[in-house]
User: What shape does this take?
Amino acid sequence: MVDEPLPGHEPYKGRLAIPYITPSGVVDIRFRGMNGEDPKYMGLVGAKTTMFNTQACFVADKYICVTEGEFDCIMMTVKTNHPTVGIPGANNWKPHYVKILDDFDVVIVLADGDAAGLEFGKKISRELGSVNIISMPDGEDVNSMMIKQGSEWLDERIRECVTPG
Assistant: This one.
């Protein structure tokens, strides 16, 4: 949490700081409201949106999970053993992400349970080869489903996507 913001960072006070870390260090920071603030996420002025948790691409083997948002990606990373990257919002998918994810046998999109989440999953499915979309129930996301159902709920659905039938 940002308790004592740097000069010019006062709008981020009380928000969770989410660093974008690469082997070269922190390349960006986004800030998430934790108490219903609007906007839910804020970025540094002038920063371009990028894929979150890209180091998962280097440790993943045959499959990788994709979430809509950094917080859902963090929850997957902390609560499961599934390699996961996050796209900071359904509208921030970039065409060059296809090149990053194309080497995986299966890409599993964990889509939020809303129209934007469904479109997010469909867009990735149109651009990549073997994509499985796991849609969260209406109004839910990865984080809320982990709270309600536990990580086992997601583990089971992901296993169905990666286990040969």
Remarks:
- Residues 56-162 form a domain with the Dna Topoisomerase Vi A Subunit; Chain: A, domain 2 fold (CATH 3.40.1360.10).
- The chain has a mean pLDDT of 93.
